[in-house]
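Quick log. Single chain, no ligands specified.
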Amino acid sequence: MYSKRLTKKDLMDAGITEITKEGKVFIGDKEVKLSKTNSGYSVFTITRTIGLHRAIYAWYNNEVPDGYVVDHINNKHSDIEDYTLENL
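-> predicted structure:
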């Protein structure tokens, strides 16, 4: 699977003001609603659909490079508890 580059600047340009290490996404003081893909990944849509795991990684590491795949260390992605920075 090919992954498009994602940077913290991309997220900020889309209006994201905070992403917590626990996987909560905010625009201002409003929490962004997460949804699930058919394969169980948590995602949110601002100007495009963004995987929560990729957004968390980009927010704290400044970018997900072009072609880079962010995966879950515990190989699970169905519960929000699996979306911690330490598990990516």
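Helices lie at 8-13, 52-61.
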